[in-house]
From TrEMBL:
Organism: Carassius auratus
Subcellular location: Cell membrane
Family annotation (InterPro entries): GPCR_Rhodpsn, GPCR_Rhodpsn_7TM
Protein's recorded name: P2Y purinoceptor 4-like
Name of the encoding gene: LOC113049310
PROSITE patterns named among the record's database cross-references: G_PROTEIN_RECEP_F1_1, G_PROTEIN_RECEP_F1_2
Molecular function in Gene Ontology: G protein-coupled receptor activity
Family: Belongs to the G-protein coupled receptor 1 family.
């Protein structure tokens, strides 16, 4: 859009979306393809190689599942980015995209949060019998969460249809003038319940976990191993949330506020649109980073992963026997292996 278009759009109080650079769609597809490969392999390890699941493994499996389900719709979203932001795939496909996106992002956040709570309880309250440590309870909880996520996704899909404006089809964009009030309300619900609240829980759990880990005797090999493992988990989860979910929610919130109260500022809105898509790619990197949680957070998954690589003819780095034994012993006493 050139300068005169922006001026005319400002006078008409409308802003037309611009096509995004093709590299945005290519990067998006590559990120989610890598995420599919990593999470598909993780799901295979969980289902075929990890024979004894506990509560932590159930949570990690569900996180991998929520990461993998978005991949089939990625080509549609990439095409939308580069086709003048003109949705040409029909109303049903748009509603399906919105529903699956909701399930994917909300599921990733809530399962990441539950893994954080589980890690906190396992370390800080290792000597207490709590429901979150019980596999049967976790299975029922995950089933209830999936039911809630599906209902919520269907509701969002029903509430946010395709709209035709200036002969272009719009799907899930701030340029849908007819839906800006709905976007405004939905955004702040999502921002609080799926960003601020989980972030508070995560920070609380891992600050307490860090405090507990700091008291472990690091003069022994066992204490040093437990501390390194737990601190690694702290860093991974905080990094994933800060990189993948926080920027997306912040940029989206700024975008809906500007659209609602300063809709004539077209250039700013177009810049926010591009920034949102860039943050969307960052959010997709979550699918590539979550497998680190399974590898570093689950001793059983790590062993099954290494066995799987050996079966495929890949020789992974193997720790010496003494170190493996001390890690296993310390985990049994202090961490309740996930």
């Amino acid at each position: 859009m050139n300068t005169s278009d922006v001026v005319n759009a400002s006078h008409n109080n409308t802003c037309s979306p611009e096509p995004q650079h093709i590299s945005l769609g290519v990067i998006l597809c590559l990120v989610y393809l890598l995420g599919l490969l990593l999470n598909g392999f993780s799901l295979w390890v969980f289902t075929c190689r990890v024979h004894k699941w506990n509560s932590g493994a159930v949570l990690q499996f569900n996180l991998a599942l929520s990461d993998a389900i978005i991949t089939p719709l990625t080509p549609l979203m990439a095409a939308y980015f580069v086709m003048d932001s003109n949705w040409k795939f029909g109303d049903f496909a748009c509603r399906l995209k919105i529903a699956v996106l909701s399930i994917h992002f909300n599921g990733s956040v809530i399962f990441l949060m539950l893994i954080s709570v589980h890690r906190y309880v396992s370390v800080v309250h290792f000597n207490r019998s709590l429901l979150i440590k019980r596999k049967i309870f976790i299975k029922k909880l995950c089933a209830g969460i999936w039911g809630f996520l599906i209902i919520l996704g269907i509701f969002y899909g029903w509430l946010l249809p395709v709209t035709i404006e200036e002969n272009n089809g719009h799907c899930l964009t701030i340029h849908q003038k007819k839906l800006i009030d709905s976007y405004f309300v939905i955004n702040f619900v999502i921002f609080f319940f799926w960003c601020i609240f989980p972030l508070i829980i995560l920070v609380f759990c891992y600050s307490r976990l860090a405090s507990s880990v700091s008291r472990i005797n690091i003069n022994s090999a066992q204490g040093q191993s437990v501390k390194n493992k737990s601190m690694r988990m702290i860093g991974i989860c905080v990094f994933i949330f800060a990189l993948c979910f926080l920027p997306l929610n912040v940029v989206r919130t700024i975008g809906v506020v500007v659209k609602k109260y300063h809709s004539s500022k077209c250039r700013l809105l177009l810049q926010l649109q591009t920034a949102y898509y860039a943050c969307y790619i960052l959010a997709g990197i979550n699918c590539c980073l979550d497998p680190l949680i399974y590898f570093f957070g689950s001793h059983n998954f790590m062993k099954a992963f290494r066995r799987s690589l050996k079966v495929m003819g890949v020789k992974p780095y193997v720790e010496n026997k003494m170190e493996s034994e001390t890690v296993s012993q310390s985990l049994n006493r202090n961490v309740v292996s996930n």
